[in-house]
Amino acid sequence: MIGGLFIYNHKGEVLISRVYRDDIGRNAVDAFRVNVIHARQQVRSPVTNIARTSFFHVKRSNIWLAAVTKQNVNAAMVFEFLYKMCDVMTAYFGKISEENIKNNFVLIYELLDEILDFGYPQNSETGALKTFITQQGIKGQPQTKEEQSQITSQVTGQIGWRREGIKYRRNELFLDVLESVNLLMSPQGQVLSAHVSGRVVMKSYLSGMPECKFGMNDKIVIDKQGKGGTTDEPGKSELGGSGKQSIAIDDCTFHQCVRLSKFDSERSISFIPPDGEYELMRYRTTKDIILPFRVIPLVREVGRTKLEVKVVIKSNFKPSLLAQKIEVRIPTPLNTSGVQVICMKGKAKYKASENAIVWKIKRMAGMKESQISAEIELLPTNDKKKWARPPISMNFEVPFAPSGLKVRYLKVFESKLNYSDHDVIKWVRYIGRSGIYETRC
Amino acid sequence: MEWASQLCENRGLGSKMTDSKYFTTTKKGEIFELKAELNSDKKEKKKEAVKKVIASMTVGKDVSALFPDVVNCMQTDNLELKKLVYLYLMNYAKSQPDMAIMAVNTFVKDCEDLNPLIRALAVRTMGCIRVDKITEYLCEPLRKCLKDEDPYVRKTAAVCVAKLHDINAQLVEDQGFLDTLKDLISDSNPMVVANAVAALSEIAESHPNSNLLDLNPQTINKLLTALNECTEWGQIFILDCLASYLPRDDRESQSICERVTPRLSHANSAVVLSAVKVLMKFMEMLPKDLDYYGTLLKKLAPPLVTLLSAEPELQYVALRNINLIVQKRPEILKHEMKVFFVKYNDPIYVKLEKLDIMIRLASQANIAQVLAELKEYATEVDVDFVRKAVRAIGRCAIKVEQSAERCVSTLLDLIQTKVNYVVQEAIVVIKDIFRKYPNKYESVIATLCENLDSLDEPEARAAMIWIVGEYAERIDNADELLESFLEGFHDESTQVQLQLLTAIVKLFLKKPTETQELVQQVLSLATQDSDNPDLRDRGYIYWRLLSTDPVAAKEVVLAEKPLISEETDLIEPTLLEELICHIGTLASVYHKPPSAFVEGSRGVQHKRLPPRAGSGESTESPDVGQSGPSEAPPAVIPSQGDLLGDLLNLDLAPPTATVPSVQPSMQMGAMDLLGGGLDSLMGDESDTPGGRTEVQSPQPYSDYSERELGGDIGGSPSMGAGLGAAPAAMPASLGSAPAVGGGLGDLFDLGGGVGMPTGSYVAPKTVWLLAMKAKGLEISGTFARRGGIIQMDLSLTNKAMSVMTDFAIQFNRNSFGLAPAGPLQVLTPLSPNQTIDVSLPLSTSGPVMKMEPLNNLQVAVKNNIDVFYFSCQYPLSLLFVEDGKMDRQVFLATWKDIPNDNEAQFQIKDIHLNSDVASNKLQGSNIFTIAKRTVEGQDMLYQSVKLTNGIWVLAEMRIQTGNPNYTLSIKCRAPEVCPFVYQCYELVLKN
């Protein structure tokens, strides 16, 4: 299991060091600094073995988090734990920075004591942790016996992510369907690979211990119902809109609150949600993706010292919708000496430091088209190596889900308190963003 | 502390008061100041002071001097302060054991506190204080906490048992904590179950033979129930534990799989990977024609793909595992090629791994896409990545025949880019393509020759030279080309030299008239001016061959070579199986068995997949080769590059230069040399440009012959071509071997039929207990290991005047846990002057305590008169187990892994045995010879020994012909056993 956990700043100075196992000595702290943080080469692997000791590291801005072990630990678990630890720290004091870590070192030690025992990760849900590990140490002692046992039963219980007795005057929930659409397209416009990775993020402000059921236009469910004949789902089109009937989901994963065995057998998504914001599910689709933009590049080398680039972008969605924050990044060779750009819409600039022409458009409606052309002057070089022509990449945001996913319902049942599904105010929002959206040229 | 003082200034400028200020004190005398503050009456001030102490501790300052003052702060109501003090205690208790006792009272009191959080905190912290004296006090509170009404306390106590076991295993057993821990598996709280499972699994790991976990269908059922309810981490512990269970039949296996599959949708990648591990393992037991088997295969693909959208570090772990899964079950991901395409922004470690998997998945169906991608990658920036991409193109050509032409033209395009490392890499792979498809793509040679000058890496030079030699008849200026290399012959690396030698000989045989001078030149360079024995050997052989019988030389040197096969970089099947059992763990990331990087007895157990269902296949031949047409398991060549690596490669390839003593001494007749020399010649021929190319140049018969042919290497086809005519011509030193293959056979499987083991050596009895010291009872005895059972042979003599009865025997704790496995069988009373011989079977599961010397055993014998004590020493060979033959690969990895400090050298004098007899003799005592190598008349035997407690001992024994003194180097993770192992060697060899 994890033998020790260290946090370093960018210089390699230790900010936090907690050792859990006897086989990890103080020298491990230095070994990592010397061999990884101060190494001249770029990091070649997130797992490093130095003198029979294995180091796992992740970086958050310029802070290094390293877990150390001498055993054959579950590597995936160690990384998951490190990410989780970042989440917990962020939930407690915001951004992970040197200053924040130093300001909260007592708290961090307290957390580390709680969420790792002898190197074994323990309950690390912030919801639970915040009930008894508090920033100022105010809480902790003047609790009644009931409160104490409530805390412990929550930390160890089946629903470790939610505490009892939550009350809201207004029961409200927000669902965000956030998708990032990824594309790799050949210069000829052939889709080399495309997939959507999506997340359903939920913000719940619900009283008590509500039982929730979430439904979407999952092909498997819809087909099953189709066979069954009647669709007696109430509120079927309550939240969702029109559009594609159903979508094929390649795979999905759920927050630990979702009953996986139930999903496996009935494909229904039921759960008791954590309070506040959390990620309910992640999914991936590869079929019938709506690609919001098409990029058509044209690069011509005119002699040895000039390049002509023309890029057309076409928006491919309903004209009533608006895409935002559009940015097209056209890479230029290292020996570029000057660039002249003309674009029909938005603003374009050559950024020498980034070796790219960056073309920004604030808004663009569907079924439109825009174009940029540029002349790139090159310095003559005797460098034999050809320019690698990195792909043209794109960023954007659209108000729909490129996968076609629709939320069909989210039902809330809380039998003990007197509010019903109808009393809950529900909001749904769809945001599609570009992931790695590249077209080779 | 620089940053600390900076922050201090910031604060002075008015930033808010925060904890970072505690990092600031750097003044002299601060310890003194802190001391005063710690003893202050004001609570707040105390707390501040403790915080400062912890801050100093973090940055590595020694604040142990404050121990008593800090401990004084422990007795407090303030939980935050208490935690800080505990943190300090955990760090320094070990260095101040006596003072740590001061803290015990508070701990014991806290364990009784009303607040469960405080009870848990106390028991958690106490377990982290590694002071022997404290552990005694820990037992009672721990016992209570294990039965606490609050689950939070129980789950903490469960982990504490593992902590205590790490400090004092015996104590945990004696106190019966293990049973309590087992009971917790049935606890009502899932988290308690999960932590108990974690603790038990860890404890079980250090007791390889104990049946601690004792998994049966009932406990499995409990675990599966808890799986649905516990935290993500708990699910990981439980799944990892499930993976070590062996279901009774395929029905049980299926029902477990059904209950584990829902975990594949968990958001935590580690849960997913651990579930995959369980499924991959249990699937092995399902009949392939079962519908469920197919369903399961289909269910595995999507979650594996989803892992690739995780954070890059996890992607890396996932990819390393997918690499294994694809080798074991290629069908799972065969349609998922696209997701492994490299993204421009992937970190380099992700890119390299993806590339590997792309090649593994390449097939006729997707090859066009793959090639287009690879070509794209070959223009990227990162040199390693580009090289690997180029190499991948070559591997595609070899793997998918239909694509070969396209691959070659792609490679030619890349050569045109003139990027130096791309060109070199391309030439190396084109050489391999030639070896797979001879006489097909020779038209490209001209292009290759244009780039001759730019080649500066040995591998590329060797490849180019091989090509020129192989196709000398079609290259007009082949002689000029080769001659140009010859100028700097002595500056070249060995692989280039060897290749150049062979190439020129080939050239000479093809165009004898104009190249006579050249061949003479190279032969004399190789034989007379070189220090390298391999080069000299090869030079002499060619020379003699050419001068004795040019026709035979032609037949040998220009013989048709076996084609190389596609799967050359697969992980060796047994290792792969083991790694599959370790999916998700570090072993699967390193692609090494845990024993290669974990110290001590932990992880030494080799995990195996369950036996395959139905088909009757044994685990010996897993169906890795499914994708390929070849019947034989694919040859797997390890990639170590050092001397030991060479050794291994040589051994793996039967027809190579491992024939004992092929010494180019002038006294021997030409014919003698021919016999031995031919093999090596042929072997080298078939593996071409030497050295590192072994990594990708497959030797298709190696594994095959090891397994199937056993000692009968003579039939190996590659050898038959050249050797067929003269099997009788054996080198003199092989005289005693029964057949051609005999000598080689020794190398591959010494246990297999060649010479029977002589049985382990048993020393004569010596007197251990004198009659005068034991009221007339004399005991003499010795130790023996017979058929895996350790026995203590005793002779009891009654030298007193009265009858002796009621014998019993007991051992004190000892280094290897030796203990009587049964009572001392002296059934009849021992009359005066009578002697009885008894054999007492011993087990090694007794309590362990390190003795001085290590092999000392203290014995107590009781009879109706009194109790007598004596001590004796047993030979360590008693503990050498029968399955101590280490896998060759593992041997290599382990040898390299053990630090050199742990190596001990010994001289064994006056032994007049040749190496085969010696190794046979040693094998009788379970010292196994894994490989043998002969260098300049010196035989080197590589041997392994495994002790009953799982410690491996590796040894290298050098035997110089004619020198009665052997040199023995012993390497072991526990170096203290080395001298005793040496003793055993001496004992065995001298008797």
Automatic annotation (TrEMBL), chain A:
Family recorded in the similarity comment: Belongs to the adaptor complexes medium subunit family.
Species this chain originates from: Cyprinus carpio
Function, as annotated: Component of the adaptor complexes which link clathrin to receptors in coated vesicles. Clathrin-associated protein complexes are believed to interact with the cytoplasmic tails of membrane proteins, leading to their selection and concentration. AP50 is a subunit of the plasma membrane adaptor. The complex binds polyphosphoinositide-containing lipids.
Membrane topology qualifier: Peripheral membrane protein
SUPFAM superfamilies: Second domain of Mu2 adaptin subunit (ap50) of ap2 adaptor (SSF49447), SNARE-like (SSF64356)
Gene Ontology MF terms in the entry: lipid binding
GO BP, sorted A to Z: endocytosis; intracellular protein transport; Wnt signaling pathway
Protein name, as recorded: AP-2 complex subunit mu-A
Primary site of residence: membrane
Domain of life according to the entry: Eukaryota
PROSITE patterns in the record: CLAT_ADAPTOR_M_1, CLAT_ADAPTOR_M_2, MHD
CDD domains: AP-2_Mu2_Cterm (cd09251), AP2_Mu_N (cd14836)
InterPro entries given in the database record: Adaptor_comp_med_subunit (IPR050431), AP2_Mu_C_sf (IPR036168), AP2_Mu_N (IPR043532), AP_mu_sigma_su (IPR022775), Clathrin_mu (IPR001392), Clathrin_mu_CS (IPR018240), Longin-like_dom_sf (IPR011012), MHD (IPR028565)
Binding residues for a 1,2-diacyl-sn-glycero-3-phospho-(1D-myo-inositol-3,4,5-trisphosphate): K347, K349, K351, K360, K362
Domain MHD: 170-440
Entries under Pfam families matching the protein: Adap_comp_sub, Clat_adaptor_s
Chain spans, region Disordered: 225-244
Localization of this protein: Cell membrane; Membrane, Coated pit
Any one annotated GO CC term: clathrin adaptor complex
UniProtKB/TrEMBL annotation, chain B:
One GO cellular component, as annotated: clathrin adaptor complex
GO biological process: animal organ development; intracellular protein transport; vesicle-mediated transport
Location of region: Disordered: 597-641, 655-718
GO terms of molecular function: clathrin binding
Domain Clathrin adaptor alpha/beta/gamma-adaptin appendage Ig-like subdomain span(s) in chain numbering: 761-871
Listed Low complexity bias regions: 666-681
Membrane topology classification: Peripheral membrane protein
Keyword entries, A-Z: Acetylation, Membrane, Protein transport, Transport
Entry-linked InterPro entries: AP_beta, AP_complex_bsu_1_2_4, ARM-like, ARM-type_fold, Armadillo, B-adaptin_app_sub_C, Clathrin/coatomer_adapt-like_N, Clathrin_a/b/g-adaptin_app_Ig
Cellular location(s): Endomembrane system
Pfam families per the UniProt record, alphabetical: Adaptin_N (PF01602), Alpha_adaptinC2 (PF02883), B2-adapt-app_C (PF09066)
Limits of the Beta-adaptin appendage C-terminal subdomain domain: 880-990
Family: Belongs to the adaptor complexes large subunit family.
Protein name per Swiss-Prot or TrEMBL: AP complex subunit beta
